[in-house]
Amino acid sequence: MTWLRAMAAAGLSLFFPGAGHALLRDWFRALVFAGLYFSAVWFFFPVEQMASASSFSGMMDVVNTETDTMSQFFIMFIALFAAIDATFRALGFPPESNDQTDGPSCPECGKGLDEDLGFCHWCTTRLEPVDSEAEDVDETEREEPVHN
Predict the structure, then answer these.
(1) Into how many domains does the chain fold?
(2) How far, in Å, CA of 20 to CA of 89, rounded?
(3) Structural domain range at position 140
(4) How many CB atoms lie within 10 A of CB 92?
């Protein structure tokens, strides 16, 4: 399931940088990549000429003829970097368990959990309820002194 989620995030980021991070609910990175992409398109592409094109193929012809190779490479680099970053984030690299949560953490993604929910609100992994009586019995069995 993690690989499927990583591939979906990568594919969405290739199609539109920032969309893969939105799938992962990493809102800050989604806004950064989308903003970077729109800024680069506005700066490097002839937006006015593209808007006056009569069709999508005409728009792509304008981009092909009026944009130099370095500008096209820069746009593709942003999309590729967003896809790689989204893939690594979906796979859990770097591990985000450094945020020192006081309560329980999810066994799948490692983020902090809301104790009132029966699932992780970050990765939607179903959590098994913890039986507090079973824990109490285990602790009392460990604390009993051994008589010789």
Answers:
(1) 2
(2) 10
(3) 99-148
(4) 15
Q: Are residues 87 and 127 in the same domain?
A: no
Residues 84 and 142 in one domain: no
Neighbouring residues of 53: CB distance < 8 A, sequence distance ≥ 6: 59, 61, 62
Q: What's the pLDDT tens digit per position in 38-85?
A: 999 999 988 888 889 889 999 989 888 888 989 989 999 999 999 999
Per the model's pLDDT, the better-predicted residue between 134 and 12 turns out to be 12
The answer on 87 and 22 residing in a single domain is yes
- Structure tokens belonging to residue 147: 């008589």
Our CA dihedral for 32, 22, 17, 40, rounded to 10 degrees, sits at -30
Decide: 12 and 86 in contact? Cβ < 8 Å.
Answer: yes
Q: Are residues 70 and 103 in the same domain?
A: no
